[in-house]
Amino acid sequence: MTGPSPALLRVDQLRTWFPIRAGVFQRVTGHVRAVDGVDFEIGRGTTLALVGESGCGKTTVGRSILRLVEAQGGAVHYDGEEILSRELDAFRPYRRRIQVVMQDPASALDPRMTVRDAIAEGMEAFNIGANTQERTDRVADLMTLVKLDPDTMSRYPHEFSGGQRQRICIARALAVDPELIICDEAISSLDVSIQAQILNLLKDLQEERGLTYLFITHDLGVVRYFADRIAVMYLGRVVEEGPTERIMAAPRHPYTQALLASVPSLDPDRRGVEPAALGDVPSPANPPKGCHYHPRSAPRLEQCDRDDPPVVRFEDGCSRCFLSQGGQP
Asked: Whole-prediction pTM value?
């Protein structure tokens, strides 16, 4: 799956499976194919939205890049360097360059730590700042940057609202001067009005600091005005990738069409459009033969039932579907 150039992050055939164990001796009887050969690129200073239903593997992709779980195959290239095969000590500098903002800020923040200590934790781990006062001054600057009152840094996370706690998490990520931030459902637990504020904050920070984002979400509608490109995941695979404007206007894969049809719209031409996905999502422990999506797709060919579709490439992206026309395998 291609993206803009130059790429800060390139993921090639990433594979992360989890063993299924059964019996007294806990023998491996199968695998959950959470991530099953994922490819994408993110250009420096841009945003790629990784979109899909719950259980499609998108969070595992982010965790695999961060090596919070270990992948079984594939490669992750960061700024031209392959990082998955490195020893953990050699990987440590990348934990500073790649930060994460999680879905639930309440669980991401230690309730026993003040906001000052939570934001400064990364600085202390990476020896940023000459002394305690310098780090405290930096915490104050970061809180101002994310539009929080620095005078509240001695308070604890429970004294803040959900949106304010997410701003604290963003400040904590920024404290170590990262280049890439993985936002894993970072706004899904917030009210709609607060979601817009956080998205605007992330966009402003990107423009000011040249940040690169991998924005993981289940909601295509959220990323319409935020992401430069979209990669759509289904059952552990990217099934379509391309620029946001084109995917929102003319999706090529039936699954992307189904996701878009489920997004509420004020457009009279789109209201009442039924999603193209039929039935429940199959288990990633036992994906369908042939195209993984064919049991839920209304438009399909005979070969969809038996053959795994190739990646069809276009000038602006790609699609993993026999129905895609005009591309090159």
From this structure: 0.91
Find out whether 49 and 217 touch, Cβ atoms under 8 Å.
yes
Nearest CA-CA partner of 41 in 83, 12, 62, 68: 12
Does residue 6 have a cis peptide bond before it, meaning omega lies within 30 degrees of 0?
Answer: yes
CA dist 218 and 263 (Å) reads: 11
Q: Tell me which H or E stretch contains 192.
A: helix 192-209
201 sits in which H/E element: helix 192-209
Do 14 and 35 meet the contact criterion of CB atoms below 8 Å apart? yes
Q: What is the pLDDT of residues 62-91, one digit of tens each?
A: 999 999 999 999 999 999 999 999 999 999
Cα–Cα–Cα angle for 178, 183, 186, rounded to 5 degrees? 135
- Please name which of 45, 31, 29, 36 lies closest in space to residue 13, comparing C-alpha atoms: 36
Instruction: Tell me the β-bridge partners of 312.
Output: 319
